[in-house]
Sequence to fold (408 residues):
Amino acid sequence: MTDEPSSKPPSEGSVVATFGSASFLNDMGSDIVYSIWPSFVYLLIGFENPFFLGVIDGLGNWIVNISKGASGLISDKIQKRKVFIWTGYLAGASSRIFYGLAPTWEWLAPARILDRAGKIRGSPRDALIADVSSMETRGRNFGILRALDNLGAVTGIMITIAFVTFVMPLLGSLYGFTELMSIRFLFMAAAIPTIIGSLLVLVKIKDYRKKPGKPVFSLDGFNRSLSLFIVISFLFSSAFFSYSFIVLYASLFFTFPVINPLLNVTIGYLIFTLAAALLSAPLGNLSDRIGRRGTILVGYGFFALMCLLFVFVPNVWTILLALICYGASIGAAVPAQKSLVAELAPTDLRASFLGVYQLVTGFAALFASVLAGFLWFLFLPQTPFLVALSLTVVAALLLPFVKEKSST
Fold:
């Protein structure tokens, strides 16, 4: 299907509903995988290695943002959005089959690259949402999208918990499946909802550009506030390492003797994802009312509080609160950051600048996860959180110097 970009704006509600539904389905599939990912990696390699996990997750996050950066630039150049979005979902679905078939741990890197390359959908999708939104609804729309992302994730996590609790023992007793074989089966089934989401976008979304023409990317678009905010985002992303370390650390304090030990990590993942799902939409609305900077600062504050709780007062209850703070930091920071970049960037180059933003933060994410694995392995599990806290404080101190636009 080769839609030409339309000059007539599509229904804002229809676009948000379609992308929200596709995101719900995709995150249902992806979080079936991610909610048990650290346990799967350890079963496959045969021993715990935080540094290896950091490299794999960091590489994945780096590929995510390279994909978003490249797709944003190309999307503006060829004036297409839709093709990147539905093919990105298909790449994600294919990777889950790849995970399920991977014979050894060496295959995880190419499978992870394919998985995260599916994020080519990110910048074009965000640009299309920004184009159909107004200043008064943009934060809300990104918040709704993030909420549906996380609701899909919660659904996927619950499927994983039910599978490990009820289906895995049956597969073991009836067919002799090991835990690793059962997880492989689960991963391949996780491709199905994402394929459905891809088809939904293919059928329901029409390409649209707010300012048709042939835009050419230029560094002139980097005004002072946008440039500074990208630097700040690099600092914060250098603190925002892979969720794997957060749920692994939390699992050190969670013990649930009545459930499969594989689910200790999954329970931690469920808690912060549920918090993000419940808080993303209201915090997105908050950014429409009090501004993007204020809401981003709230997100930074929640992340800093998580680090403080993890390092200085770790016990079952404070770890639970820390996971809720982590989910709140995602709900506050992610929608508001995307909205701010979209508003500071030139309107006809939104996908390009959203892509550059993702590319820069992707390099930081790679550095963050590798560093976290190294610090965890070489020193103590608390060490990465101390470093993350310091970087978050610096980012928060610089944020007030970013000036928001009054309209766009």
Remarks:
- Residues 12-204+222-401 form a domain with the Growth Hormone; Chain: A; fold (CATH 1.20.1250.20).
- The mean pLDDT is 83.
- The two ends are 31 Å apart (CA to CA).
